[in-house]
Amino acid sequence: MNIRELSQPITSQKLNENMARNIGIKLNLEKFTNAQLEDARNQMRTEMSQFEVSESFDSVNASPRYQKVRMLHDVINQEILEREKRKEEEGKQLDSDSDDAEEKQKTEESMNKDIYIAKMALKAQDHNVPTAWIANAIRRINLGESDAEELSSELQLRYDLKESVANHIVYLAEDEEEEAKVIMSTKDMVDRVTGWLDDVSKMKAEQLLQLLDSIGKAKGQDVAAQYGQAVKPALEEIYSSLESTRSALKSAMGIISGEGGGEMMGTEPGMAPAVPGEENLGLEAEPGAEPGAEPVGAEPAGREMRETAEYSRKLGMLLAASKKK
Questions:
Q1: What are phi and psi of 49, to 5 degrees?
Q2: Distance (Å, rounded) from C-alpha 266 to C-alpha 259?
Q3: Which end of the chain is more exposed for a tag (fewer CB within 10 A), N or C?
Q4: Structural domain harbouring 236
Q5: At a CB cut-off of 8 Å and minimum separation 6, what does 151 contact?
Q6: Which of 217, 243, 267 is the last residue of a domain?
Q7: Which residues contact 62 (CB under 8 A, 6 or more apart)?
Q8: Which of 266, 277, 267, 197 lies closest to 235 in space, CA to CA?
Q9: 207 and 261 together in one domain
Q10: What pTM did the predictor assign?
């Protein structure tokens, strides 16, 4: 046996081969179930224990029977340990796969919600629905307090919209959903390249300086200077290339979304971006106003919202009637 063999891990296969060379017996381990292996191991442990108790130390070492049982025990015991380890690793992999699938599902659900909110907000703006209502609706959707049916009923009662128009605003048609997914996918490409840009920027501003300092201490300032002269231009080139790529992707996203700039999905020049969150709608509520309150100037003068008991009663009746259909 050489040093290389000593450095390699002991496996049931190697022990089995060694046993075959020494006593001419080799087990077909794959044919045994876990229960059969454990029973055999227990029997051999009992036999070895009885022999050790009844015989002297010299007799134990000199006994061919004991050495044979000992080898069989070691092979079987190692096989059991390896099977347990494989089972444990498979369990970890299943848990990991399950976590990945769950995370993927959460990401997809989040993306679908963003798609829905963005398209709903755009269509609401197209029909002159006040941005304050849109912001309040987005907040309630994110909190799970309102669904499409309730929002449609609100639009009908508050702004005298036809049922077909209100439903068009709050429900996504199949072609709209596919279009929104395509736009979101193009935006994801831009976001990923932006992340790479941030990583390279950190390398230039932080990691490289720290690395040069470490090289200077370990190898000398001359070596650090040479390394810096080689790496800095490379990082600058990568950064410049990523900037160009990001710019091209943003322009291409504008082609898909039908907008020239492609800065934000669902935005128009001079219009606040229609993305989740009141802060992204450019709304300014009055100081001290309740969450969801209409900001100053959000509606034409003279239009009053029907936040009265009569409005609540009508809304409840409309929702109850629609649920019976």
A1: -65, -45
A2: 8
A3: C
A4: 172-267
A5: 120, 137, 141, 166, 169, 170
A6: 267
A7: none
A8: 197
A9: yes
A10: 0.39
